[in-house]
């Protein structure tokens, strides 16, 4: 019975490992998705800043074209100063030129304001791009780490399944069936260790005589509280 219990104990540990791997398998894709979303958000933030600069650049170029057209009109108006024949026409043209110059001046100020804003945004963008680059690099490293864990878990899953298959063939069929029933009823744990007269499955004290017998590992001893199979991790040596 000692050998059978040792085999069963190893299978229990394998099953717990498989459960942990399975939990990771369901968790890893969610973590990858979360990191992908984080990457997307950071990239979108940078793109919005770039789009803002592009919009202002287009606005600046449009204003510069409009200013050029207006300045040309002002020059033509100034050229007409020598063609007017009456003082009234002269004053009207003079007022028109003055209004045009004031409008052009305001446009020049607006262009300068746009240039300052664009310059400030570009400087900030350079800083933000470095920050985002570092963030994206960190995210990629996290994703790589997760993929490595996934590959490792796949390998471990295969190895443990093969080992479980080998062990299951060496265990008495009735004992293995009992283990399966207990494992299903007790949240995946059918065999537990017993320490200091305490079942490590339900953490209830077991009678002293039960503890003594369990330490021998030469008989099927079950916890009187949770009904799990008790195993002593001490090679049969009593305390």
Description of the structure:
The longest helix is centred in the middle third of the chain and has 82 residues, at about 85-170. This protein has about 240 residues and is mostly helical. The chain folds into 2 domains: about 25-170, Helix Hairpins (Orthogonal Bundle); about 175-230, no CATH class. The radius of gyration is 41 Å and the shape is rod-shaped. A 3-stranded mixed β-sheet has the order 2-1-3. α1 (about 1-80) packs antiparallel against α2 (about 85-170). β1 and β2 (about 200) form a beta hairpin. Mean pLDDT is about 90; it is low at about 235-239. The chain is built from 4 helices and 3 strands. It has helices spanning about 1-80, 85-170, 175-185, 210-215; strands at about 190-195, 200, 230.
Helix tally? 4
SSE string, helix = H, strand = E?
Answer: HHHEEHE
Could you tell me the CATH topology label of the largest domain. Answer: Helix Hairpins
CATH class of the largest domain: Mainly Alpha
Please tally the β strands and state the result: 3
CATH architecture of the largest domain: Orthogonal Bundle
């Amino acid at each position: 019975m000692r050998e059978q219990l040792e085999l069963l104990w190893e299978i229990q540990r394998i099953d717990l490992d498989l459960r942990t791997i399975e939990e990771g398998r369901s968790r890893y894709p969610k973590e990858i998705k979360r990191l992908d979303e984080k990457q997307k958000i950071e990239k979108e933030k940078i793109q919005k800043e770039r789009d803002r600069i592009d919009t202002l650049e287009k606005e600046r170029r449009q204003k510069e074209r409009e200013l050029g057209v207006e300045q040309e009109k002002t020059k033509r108006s100034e050229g007409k100063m020598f063609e007017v024949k009456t003082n009234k026409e002269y004053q009207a043209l003079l007022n028109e030129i003055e209004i045009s110059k004031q409008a052009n001046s305001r446009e020049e100020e607006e262009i300068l304001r746009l240039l300052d804003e664009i310059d400030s945004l570009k400087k900030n963008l350079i800083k933000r791009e470095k920050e985002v680059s570092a963030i994206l690099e960190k995210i990629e490293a996290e994703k790589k780490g997760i993929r490595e864990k996934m590959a490792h878990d796949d390998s471990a899953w295969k190895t443990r399944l093969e080992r479980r298959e080998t062990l299951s063939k060496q265990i008495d069929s009735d004992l293995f069936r009992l283990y399966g029933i207990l494992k299903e009823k007790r949240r995946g744990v059918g065999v537990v260790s017993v320490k200091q007269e305490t079942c490590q499955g339900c953490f209830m004290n077991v009678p002293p005589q039960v503890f003594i017998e369990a330490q021998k590992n030469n008989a099927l001893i079950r916890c009187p509280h949770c009904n799990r199979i008790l195993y002593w991790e001490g090679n049969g040596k009593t305390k």
